[in-house]
Amino acid sequence: MTNKTRVLVVDDSALMRGLLTEMINMATDMEVVGAAADAAMAREMIKSLDPDVLTLDVQMPKMDGIEFLERLMRLRPMPVVMVSAYTQSGSETTMKALELGAFDFIGKPRADGINSMEEYAEELVDKLRAAKSARLRKFVSPPAGSAAGAHPPLTPRSLPVMGASNKIIFLGASTGGTEAIKEFLTGIPENSPPILIVQHMPEAFTASFAKRLDSLCASRVIEAKGGEKVESGTVYVAPGHSHMQIRRSSSGLVTELLSTPPVNRHRPSVDVLFDSAATVVGKLAIAVMLTGMGKDGAQGMLRMRQLGARTFGQDEASCVVYGMPREAFLIGAVEEQCPLEEIARKVLQAAR
Predict the structure, then answer these.
(1) Can you tell me the distance from the alpha carbon of 329 to that of 313, in angstroms, rounded to the nearest whole number?
(2) What is the strand order of the sheet 104-107 is part of?
(3) 264, 292 in Cβ contact below 8 A?
(4) What count of Cα atoms within 13 Å lies in the side-chain half-sphere of residue 341?
(5) Which of 146, 177, 150 is nearest to 268 (CA)?
(6) Which numeric CATH code is attached to 5-133?
(7) Do the domains at 5-133 and 168-351 have one common CATH topology?
(8) Are 270 and 198 in contact (CB under 8 A)?
(9) 324 with 301: CB under 8 angstroms?
(10) Which residues are marked as active site?
(11) pLDDT at 147
């Protein structure tokens, strides 16, 4: 008997249910055991079919994906990959879903060429595979009176006040990274060194991600547009359509966006950012690698370390997916591995 990953597809569109089912069933190690049109049907199918993983539409009638996800994570936690429309509201809702414990998300497939559908199917299956073996994050119920996924106001934690520092922090993350980055940044004071971030994410989602972080963190968080002066107290998130790097200009250090081909299948790529950090900033750089699938950033981090940068990797126990930090650690790029909750403190010590 084959030990296939059992997937339940939840989507209100019959066309989408059919398409996702076909894509998933093409993988020899997976089978779609059911397809539900709404939350009520999904609930019954979860009880009767006991799937390993769920794909869940963000926006559905009767009970939307967020409300359903919140109940599911409280009552029967399981790996969920959200399927989201590439829209402003779709991206904001997706950010809430990740906060509530969804493993990852993927945009809805778009019919603009045969290759893109094949690539989409490959990405979907990769995410479902990773979801099955990933560590589930503990569900934290939203505070009373707040909407699902809404945040309590950030309390002034005993954040250290930074003295002047000439260091610059470079951070890479992928799967599980949206929440890991949030935890890291809420431990960073307002006047911290500049922070440049690459989080693997489609372009429709990075602006919402930056805006959400900006509302939660002491530092200012922006989606980079290219050409911004790199200043302390500011966090620059690479947009989902371009690589981001740091370069010298007549006015000092600035961000630069590149539309060159993907690196390690990603644009933005962590390696592109880290390579520029090694070349331009050298030993004044600090590199951080958080949770994520794959190996993007490992080689760039190694070059940073060889040129005198301090380098930190998230440890296996606190990662949703111990992929990128593991690859960096195995090749000697990571100077110190730490639990997620300790990384901000370690980085601030290094920055002093």
Answers:
(1) 7
(2) 30-36, 5-10, 53-57, 80-84, 104-107
(3) no
(4) 2
(5) 177
(6) 3.40.50.2300
(7) yes
(8) yes
(9) no
(10) 174, 200, 296
(11) 44
Query: φ, ψ for residue 53 (rounded to 5)?
Result: -140, 155
Write out the chain in H/E/C secondary structure.
Answer: CCCCEEEEEECCCHHHHHHHHHHHHCCCCEEEEEEECCHHHHHHHHHHHCCCEEEEECCCCCCCHHHHHHHHHHHCCCCEEEEECCCHHHHHHHHHHHHCCCCEEEECCCCCCHHHHHHHHHHHHHHHHHHHHCCCCCCCCCCCCCCCCCCCCCCCCCCCCCCCCCCEEEEEECCCHHHHHHHHHCCCCCCCCCEEEEECCCHHHHHHHHHHHHHHCCCEEEECCCCCECCCCEEEECCCCCEEEEEEECCEEEEEEECCCCECCECCCHHHHHHHHHHHCHHHEEEEECCECCCCCHHHHHHHHHCCCEEEEECHHHCCCECHHHHHHHCCCCCEEECHHHHHHHHHHHHC
Q: Where are the domains of the chain?
A: 5-133, 168-351
Fill in the amino acid letter for 317.
A
Q: So what's the pLDDT on residue 114?
A: 53
Q: 168-351 maps to which CATH number?
A: 3.40.50.180
Instruction: Return the residue matching tokens 């966090």.
Output: 235
pLDDT band at 135 (very low <50, low <70, confident <90, very high): confident
CB 55 within 8 A of CB 20: yes
Instruction: Yes or no: say if 44 and 72 are a contact pair by the CB < 8 Å rule.
Output: no
Tokens 């002047």 label which residue? 164
**Roughly what angle, to the nearest 10 degrees, separates helices 114-133 and 14-25?**
70
Q: What dihedral angle (degrees, nearest 10) is formed by the CA atoms of 311, 316, 321, 324?
A: 30
What is the tens place of the pLDDT at every residue in 104-123? 999 888 766 555 888 899 99
Entry pTM? 0.89
Chain centroid to Cα 1, Å, comes to: 35
Query: What would the two tokens of residue 270 be?
Result: 């962590």
**61-75, 132-146, 283-297, range with greatest mean pLDDT:** 283-297
* pLDDT tens digits, 151-174: 444 444 445 555 567 999 999 999
